[in-house]
Each structure stands twice: as C-alpha cells, then as structure tokens.
C-alpha cells in the first residue's frame, strides 16, 4: 500500500514536471538539459556595422567643422565656408539614416549635439572672427562669443524640449541655419572680393550677434517636417522648386545661399508677428462679445 502511494506520488510529480515543461515559453526549445535555448520569435538584430554608420556620418560632420577652423586659421575662408556647408549636409544625413536603419541611440543623440556644437557653434564664430571681426578688437570677440553661447544654449534647449515643442516649428533659429548665414556672408564677401574695412566688419558684427541671439529666441521657425512639401500629393511642385533652386545656384551660389538663409532667419519673426496679431484680434473679439 505504501509502495502504491509512493508510486502514485512520483507519478503526480512527474506529471507536474511534464506540465511545467509544456507551459514553458514557446520562444525557446531545447533537446536536452545541456542544450542552448533556440529563439523562434526573436527579432533580427542589425549588424554592428549598421550601428556604426550614423555615428561615422556624425564624425564626418565633426571633421568638417574642424576643417573649417583649420582653413580659417590659414586664411582660406572660402574653403572654411564650404566646409561648414558640408557639415550641414552630414548633419542632415546622420539622423535620417539612423531612423531608416532603426539604430537610434542616446549615445548617437549626444554625439550629434557635440559635433553640432563644433561645426555650427565654434567653427562659424572662429571663421567670422578670423575673417573680419578681429578688426573690431574687443567688440569682435564679444560678437563671436555671443554666437558661441547662443549655439550652446540653443542645442541644450533643443535636447531638453525635443518631446515638448511642436515638431512643425523649431523654437529659435536652428544652429545649422545660423551657421549657414555666417558662412554664406563670408563666402559671398570672398567671392566678390569685398574690401575688408570698418563698415564691412560692422556688418559682420551685426550678422553674428543677430544669429546668436535669434538662436535663443522664442521665434518659431519652420522645421520642414510637415506641411505642403511633405505631402505625398505634391512631389511635382517639390521637384520643380528643387530644379529652380539648383539653376539659381549655378548662376551665383554664394549670393543665392546667403539670400535664402537670410530670408529663413527673418521668417521666424514674421510668423511670430502674425501669431501676435491673430491673438490680439481674438482678444479684441472676445471683449466685444
């Protein structure tokens, strides 16, 4: 009788163990206790090289900013300006490639900000200072510092408010656009062989300070992430505008780039003014009701 009860108990334990095995995760299989579990429904992991690709492009962005500084120190200002524009191209590529390959990471975000600080913060200020601001003495380096501080604050605010602000608009002038404004001014001046004199230096002073302060302003600047050109229904219009822009660049690239980015740096204030007028009109209508 005792043996029958013991056998019955052993059968219950064996059945429980078998039931536990049957209830094991369907994502793993093993042939014996020593075998490694085989993943069935696991998602494919991107190769290591895919993870390195966005960071490699960010490194190219960083190198372009460093190259701009080196060229400015050697008084090759046209090459310095072109290097800043090359950094803009790289900055626009790394994030998109990371999203396409699904390799976004917090490290990549921080590394991108550090590279942007060099390419769009330090490099444009040093290029502008070496080109003409140094003729203004302390006013020159003060303008350059205002720009660098504005770029640093702009990048810090962007990183902290990335999930808060409206994605359709940037809060403050983006640092690449500010860098393009200063680099375009230098390129335009060198290309047209404008004399470096006090009036020219003060124009550079105004542009540098304006770009630095606009970066930390609350003016909304169109981000390009939504709107007419992002709609799938208007590819023909977008292609037409791109062809027109390319044709204009072939005529006079420095002038076109400077005018385009100067217009963009003013657009935020126009949008801000229109919003203010609309809000004022709504307040007046509420008072009359």
Automatic annotation (TrEMBL):
The keyword Phosphoprotein does not apply. Keywords: Lipid biosynthesis, Lipid metabolism, Membrane, Phospholipid biosynthesis, Phospholipid metabolism, Transferase, Transmembrane, Transmembrane helix. NCBIfam families: pssA. Its main location: membrane. GO terms for biological process: phospholipid biosynthetic process. Pfam families: CDP-OH_P_transf. It catalyses: a CDP-1,2-diacyl-sn-glycerol + L-serine = a 1,2-diacyl-sn-glycero-3-phospho-L-serine + CMP + H(+). One of its GO terms (cellular component) is membrane. It is a multi-pass membrane protein. It comes from Oligella urethralis. It is found in: Endomembrane system. This is CDP-diacylglycerol--serine O-phosphatidyltransferase. One of its GO terms (molecular function) is CDP-diacylglycerol-serine O-phosphatidyltransferase activity. It is an enzyme of class 2 (transferase). Its EC number is 2.7.8.8. The chain crosses the membrane at residues 50-70, 139-157, 169-190, 202-222, 234-251, 257-276.
């Amino acid at each position: 009788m005792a043996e029958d009860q013991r056998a019955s108990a052993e059968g219950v334990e064996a059945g429980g163990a078998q039931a536990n095995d049957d209830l094991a995760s369907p994502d793993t299989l093993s042939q014996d206790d020593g075998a490694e579990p085989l993943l069935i429904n696991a998602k494919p992991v991107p190769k290591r090289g895919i993870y390195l690709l966005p960071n490699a492009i960010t490194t190219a962005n960083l190198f372009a900013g460093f190259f701009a500084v080196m060229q400015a120190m050697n008084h090759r200002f046209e090459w310095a300006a072109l290097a800043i524009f090359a950094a803009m191209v790289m900055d626009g590529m790394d994030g998109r490639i990371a999203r396409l390959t699904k390799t976004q990471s917090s490290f990549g975000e921080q590394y991108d900000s550090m590279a942007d600080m060099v390419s769009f913060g330090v490099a444009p200020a040093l290029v502008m200072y070496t080109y003409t601001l140094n003729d203004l003495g302390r006013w020159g380096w003060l303008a350059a510092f205002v720009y660098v501080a504005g770029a640093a604050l702009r990048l810090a605010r962007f990183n902290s408010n990335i999930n808060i602000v409206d994605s359709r608009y940037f809060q403050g002038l983006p640092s690449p656009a500010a860098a393009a404004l200063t680099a375009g001014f230098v390129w335009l001046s060198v290309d047209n062989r404008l004399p470096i004199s006090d009036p020219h230096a003060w124009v550079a002073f105004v542009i540098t300070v304006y770009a630095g302060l606009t970066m930390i302003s609350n003016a909304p600047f169109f981000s390009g992430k939504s709107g007419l050109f992002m709609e799938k229904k208007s590819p023909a219009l977008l292609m037409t505008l791109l062809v027109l822009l390319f044709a204009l660049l072939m005529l006079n690239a420095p002038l076109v780039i400077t005018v385009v980015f100067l217009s963009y740096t003013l657009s935020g204030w126009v949008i801000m003014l229109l919003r203010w007028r609309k809000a004022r009109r709504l307040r007046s209508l509420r008072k009359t009701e």
